[in-house]
Amino acid sequence: MNYTERLSNVTVLGAAGKMGSGILLLTAQEMADLSLKPENKGKVFVINAIDVSSEALVGLMRYIRVQAVKAAEKKTVQLRTAYADRPDLIDNSDIIQQYVEDVMLIIRPSIHLEPTYGSTLVFEAIKEDPELKVKILSQIDQNNPNKPWYFTNTSSIPITQLDEKAKLGGRIIGFHFYNPPAVQKLVELIKSDHTLPEVEEFALQYAKKLRKVIVPSADFAGFVGNGHFMRDAIHGISEATMLAKEVSLPEAIYMVNKVSQEYLVRPMGIFQLIDYVGVDVCQYIMSVMNPFLPDEDLHSDLLDRMIELDIKGGQNSDGSQKDGILKYDKGRPVGVFNPDTKQYDMIADFQAACDDMLGVLPSSLQPWKSVAFSPKKENLLQAIFDEEKVMNTLGAELARKYAKRSKEIGLKLVADHVAFSEKDVNTVLLTGFFHAYGPINNYFD
After folding, report:
1. What stretch of H or E contains 10?
2. Mean per-residue pLDDT pooled into runs of 10, the chain (445 residues)
3. Would you identify the CATH topology of the domain 225-432?
């Protein structure tokens, strides 16, 4: 079965979710592009969009249509060539409309699992629950005579565990998109102990077609991305908990969030990033990873407490940030949740006092965006961190400690053979998390 044949009948499980919708969009567009090639004229391409909610699937189809229009507008010249045998398509608007129709006709939304029984390729993007994944993959495999290949988007569960428990015979690979899949360039590729070579070969070909940056990871819980992020989060939470002995917890969270964003020149502070991923998602990923880490405890009482109080974060259907540990106004943090009062303390009420405690900012400090996209990025970073190395302030002290711990985490991932090189660790943080620099560096040595 060649590349095109493998992509003739595809399923996306969890298609209406924030990850599944992006995977569906990218794959549907790739399949539509394949259908327009002369050698594929007349071939039928189907992608089953499977989710538990009919309402969510309606929203998904609206999303796909809007995104397909945008994609068509960007490649009108290419599409004009593809539709060269269609004299009825005269204006660009005609071509765009036809491409959107071609994409939409490929998609078959369903709340039932039965359509997957004819697929040759299954993308799994459901809840990060090992038992649920195994149950559904097993059911599909037992009822599908095509011996499909499975691409799981798990961000923490070992692929070998899924492979062996679902009895997939090596027809599975970890293909971990980053959020949102349609925008993010990074994909972590994780083979199980049994992954067939042809599955890996196809995965690399598919990733190349989507213009993704592939970073391989060993099959260890959390892989490279969450292996670093979850430990990085635990460090930030620990620093805030210690600081809360001197100030209120909301004040401590605000300060650590500011240090991990501004002082370390990151796009988000650590508590903002936890909210973005989802407090409940982070807690669950840690619980999946923890049994595989006998020499450390990847667990947070603070996250447990937040979940008990229904503080979960995550995004709304339009992509906007939900309130979590932080309260947001137009995407910017304006408050911090106080678990004692069960209310948000407004940052404006304590910001000046906290900033005074952190001390003066480095004179060379610039926002992440100004640094990350500057042709002089390296010089700017060096100047900022050279200042922070010698500053005698609480903010600089916390930044140095945070950066050193981040580097330790990265080096341990390499030492433990989770990441295959220091470059791979840095690529994941640079590409998947949009950091301006990798954690393994010499800025604070």
Report:
1. strand 9-13
2. 96 95 97 95 96 95 96 94 92 95 97 97 95 98 98 97 98 96 96 98 98 97 97 98 98 98 98 96 95 93 97 85 96 96 98 98 96 97 97 98 98 97 98 97 96
3. N-(1-d-carboxylethyl)-l-norvaline Dehydrogenase; domain 2 (1.10.1040)
